[in-house]
Amino acid sequence: MNQPDPMTIHHLALNQDHGCFATGTETGFRVYLSDPYKPIMRRDFDRNPRGGTQLVSMLFRSNIICLVNSGPHQSNKVMIWDDHENRYLGELSFRSEVKNVRLRRDRIVVVLNQKVYVYNFTDLKLVDQIETVVNPTGLCDVSQNAGPMVMACPGLLKGQVRVEDYGTKKSKYITAHASRIASIAMTLDGRFVATASSKGTLIRVFNTMDGSLLQEMRRGAERAEIYSLAFSSNAQWLAASSDKGTVHVFGLKVDSGSPGTSKLHSAPEPKLSSKNSSAISSFRFIRGVFPKYFSSEWSMAQFRLPESVQYLVGFGRQNNTIVIVGLDGSYYKCEFDPMNGGQMHQLEHYNFLKPEEPF
């Protein structure tokens, strides 16, 4: 009988502040610091079911980790692991496969194919349940700052995003795209949500309080699958990765200064140089004459990677840096120029699947 390969990755996820990332493997899970890069935890379970760990969700850098295992009657259970006590604290069971788990310090959000369940963290009491359109990749994001949770997930219609504000107890439905939603990301305070569709050419940022469109950015002209979207902690930048192999960073123009505001602000605008000709379309001075394609806001910084590998992107601890992790085991840390943009500078590169990596 073949032994499971602990190097095989089933799942890859960044934590809430991008400071760590975790992998689900054939035998258990691993956790790494993102910036600076460092392997910090490896757990292999003797009785891990065949198929390994298919989903890992961290709660910042705490000892609590939610796991979903593969195998018969396992993929419909969320197991709550306490790494300090080295045991499971509890489990949540469902009638269908768990697609995603999002954590806050006070809530566990479990995403199924057409439903989202919200639980109290302390007693696992069900707080809310929401129906969604078919959601095979488990799209959902939640706010992380203190105060009532704000959650974004697909609505009941194609291209629609539902924003649930548990402070005001109000729901907001945003018609974000004409095609199905492919990626959702929210700022830590829950005031802004970014979306991309299955077409993958446009990324839009909305105000979660009133559903208004704040900014529209163009990733490219060709269709692409958006793998991840991520806001910087100060909501000044938005990063995106796709199957085209390029990670993009866009400058945001939303006012992230005070609650309740969402007006445009004068963020540093990248210069149109020969090395950054894609930053903002040079045709925008004749808006209304050319198609909308020419007046779109383009990324101000880019980093090229191999195509068709699934990469996740987040922001580093230092200003103007990003971290990129891939299902092929690659880790990159890059720096971008906030004024001149252009190609990012690679600072670090590791293969986190190396068997000799010490934990």
Short account of what is shown:
The chain has 359 residues and is mostly beta strands. It has strands at 9-14, 20-25, 28-34, 37-44, 53-58, 64-69, 77-82, 87-93, 100-103, 107-111, 115-120, 126-131, 141-142, 150-154, 160-165, 170-175, 181-186, 192-197, 202-207, 213-218, 226-231, 237-242, 246-251, 297-298, 301-304, 311-315, 321-326, 330-335, 342-343, 345-351. The strands form 7 sheets. The chain has a 5-stranded mixed β-sheet with strand order 17-18-19-20-24, with no helix packed on it. Strands 21-22-23-25-29 form a 5-stranded mixed β-sheet, with no helix packed on it.
Describe this structure in words.
This protein is mainly β. Helices cover 0% and strands 46% of the residues. The chain is built from no helices and 30 strands. A 5-stranded mixed β-sheet has the order 17-18-19-20-24, with no helix packed on it. Strand 15 (160-165) and strand 16 (170-175) form a beta hairpin. The chain is globular and about 50 Å long.
Spell out the helices and strands N to C.
EEEEEEEEEEEEEEEEEEEEEEEEEEEEEE
Low-pLDDT runs of 5+ residues are: 258-262, 264-291
N-C termini distance: 28 Å
Largest sheet: 5 strands, mixed
What's the rounded overall pLDDT mean? Answer: 86
Share of β-strand residues: over 45%
Count of discrete alpha- or pi-helical segments spanning 4 or more residues? 0
Number of strands: 30
Arrangement of strands in the largest sheet: 17-18-19-20-24
